């Protein structure tokens, strides 16, 4: 039996072990971790996928902001990581997590969504693209084409230059 649960219902150590298995213990050096440094995940948009009592996947979302040169800060929600146990990857679990999070975001996100991800996958299946992000910057290395965004819950995307960071 597969269940989607609030991530807050899951033991934090189990989540960390899944993230290590999916992304490696060196994951903390990635730019995405710099962006959300010091922030707590958004409970209403962060979920766990549990199958037969075992944690098989998670999705987390984070409060971030686009900060323009003039000081204007536009709230955004950073999606990720989307993690699935390595032996179950490519089995549709990530899609289930993304679909569930997007449904929750349609009513509960306090900003548009952004992520660092594969544009072919997240564009095709979930409507993310890099159209608005060409002038955005991140606090570390990244591939511009992988900086994706999507409007949601009536929140538009900032299109001008700006740095993405925690809010």
Labels describing this entry:
eight-stranded mixed sheet, Aminopeptidase, 167 residues, alpha+beta
Largest sheet descriptor: 8 strands, mixed
Order of helices and strands: EHHEEEHEHEEE
Would you report the number of β strands?
Answer: 8
Name the average pLDDT: 95
In CATH, the topology is named: Aminopeptidase
Class per helix and strand makeup: alpha+beta
Instruction: State the end-to-end distance.
Output: 37 Å
Number of domains: 1
Roughly what percent helix?
10-25%
C-alpha-based Rg, rounded? 15 Å
CATH architecture: 3-Layer(aba) Sandwich
Task: Show unreliable segments.
Answer: none
Q: Which percent range describes the beta-strand content?
A: 25-35%
Shape: globular
Number of helices: 4
- What is the level 1 CATH name? Alpha Beta
In CATH terms, the superfamily is: Gcn5-related N-acetyltransferase (GNAT)
Give me a quick take on this structure.
It is built from 4 helices and 8 strands. By secondary structure, the chain is α+β, with helices and mostly antiparallel strands.
Structure description:
With 167 residues, the protein is α+β, with helices and mostly antiparallel strands. It has one domain (2-166): Gcn5-related N-acetyltransferase (GNAT) (Aminopeptidase), CATH 3.40.630.30. It contains four helices and eight strands; from the N terminus they run E-H-H-E-E-E-H-E-H-E-E-E. The protein has helices at 12-23, 31-35, 93-108, 119-126; strands spanning 2-6, 47-51, 54-67, 73-84, 112-116, 136-137, 147-150, 162-166. Helix 3 (93-108) links the parallel strand 4 and strand 5 (112-116).
């Amino acid at each position: 039996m597969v269940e989607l649960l609030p991530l807050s219902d899951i033991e934090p150590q189990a989540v960390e072990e899944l993230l290590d298995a999916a992304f490696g213990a060196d994951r903390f050096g990635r730019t995405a971790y710099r962006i959300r440094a010091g922030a707590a995940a958004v409970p209403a948009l962060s979920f766990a996928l549990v199958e037969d009592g075992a944690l098989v996947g998670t999705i987390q979302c984070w409060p971030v902001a686009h900060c323009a040169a003039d000081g204007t800060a536009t709230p955004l929600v950073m999606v990720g990581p989307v993690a699935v146990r390595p032996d179950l990857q490519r089995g549709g679990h990530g899609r289930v997590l993304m679909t569930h999070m997007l449904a929750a975001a349609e009513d509960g996100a306090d900003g548009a969504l952004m992520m660092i991800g594969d544009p072919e996958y997240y564009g095709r299946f979930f409507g993310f693209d890099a159209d608005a992000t060409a002038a955005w910057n991140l606090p570390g290395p990244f591939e511009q084409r992988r900086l994706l965004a999507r409007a949601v819950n009536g929140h538009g995307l900032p299109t001008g230059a700006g740095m993405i960071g925690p809010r």
